[in-house]
Specification:
The chain has about 220 residues and is α/β, with parallel strands linked by helices. Helices cover about 40% and strands about 20% of the residues. Helix 2 runs antiparallel to helix 5 and helix 3 packs parallel to helix 4. Bound molecules: S-adenosylmethionine (SAM).
């Protein structure tokens, strides 16, 4: 979540938003219709979408996992760049938002590349693990339900192949990540602990991209 990048002055934000990505009319329409909704800032920014699309292109992703669809923007940008016969497999608990997302994917011509489920993230991920999908994804984007991010990350480590990418959103928690641990809310504490454990694991390559509300990018490795 975060439809703009933290700390960018207005003029730079507008420059980056306009130049970051070759936006199709369907994507533009989805951004405009989402901008008037409550919680519009759940939607990732154009520049974050561009980074996700770029990373998936570089690793030639074919199967991409997403937890947290909202109105469908991040799944749309991913679906566009998957290699032939690729699929985005995604979930969200909000049935109304999923209806909006599915209509947007249809309008953008990518609906047949997206398998979407109205389901809680943990149930969805456990079902994928139980149905022999371990190692079958090239990438994952975790963007829902902060208190469960750690759990989702661990499921993604099983589902994403070694060398694949796991992207975790909202590291900054709108600045709350810099508070002392005692002052953190539960969701921020989870991001804090996850970030520290990734940094402490010499087996994991990672970086923080300060886009939107901060995104962690981890190159998966089987433990
Ligand atoms: C920040 S938004 C996702 C934004 C989306 N990636 C985009 O680019 O537009 C987070 C979404 O997570 C969903 N969500 C909240 N709790 C969830 C859960 N336990 N399992 C799955 N989805 C959940 C919310 O309904 C919301 O649509």
């Amino acid at each position: 979540m975060a439809s703009r990048t933290a700390g960018l002055p207005e003029e730079l934000q507008s420059f980056v938003s306009s130049m970051a990505y070759r936006m199709s009319p369907a994507e533009k329409e989805l951004r405009e219709s989402t901008a008037v909704l409550p919680n519009a800032d759940y939607q990732i920014s154009p520049e974050q979408g561009a980074i996700i699309a770029f990373l998936l292109t570089v690793i030639r992703a074919r199967r991409h996992l997403e937890i947290g669809v909202f109105t469908g923007y991040s799944a749309l940008v991913a679906a566009k760049v998957l290699t032939e016969s690729g699929r985005v497999v995604c979930c969200d608990v909000d049935a109304d938002r999923m209806t909006t997302a599915r209509a947007a994917w249809q309008a953008a011509g990518v609906a047949e590349r997206i398998d979407s489920y109205v389901q809680d993230g943990e149930t969805f991920l456990r079902r994928l693990v139980d149905s022999e999908n371990a190692n079958t994804f090239d990438s994952a984007f975790v963007d829902a339900d902060k208190p469960n991010f750690r759990k989702y990350f661990e499921y993604c480590r099983v589902l994403v192949r070694p060398g694949g990418l796991i992207l975790v959103d909202n590291l900054f928690r709108q600045g709350r990540i810099t508070r002392t641990v005692d002052e953190m809310d539960a969701g921020t504490r989870v991001l804090h602990d996850l970030m520290h454990s990734i940094k402490a694991d010499p087996e994991l390559s990672y970086c923080i991209i300060p886009v939107g509300d901060g995104m962690i990018v981890v190159r998966n490795k089987r433990t």
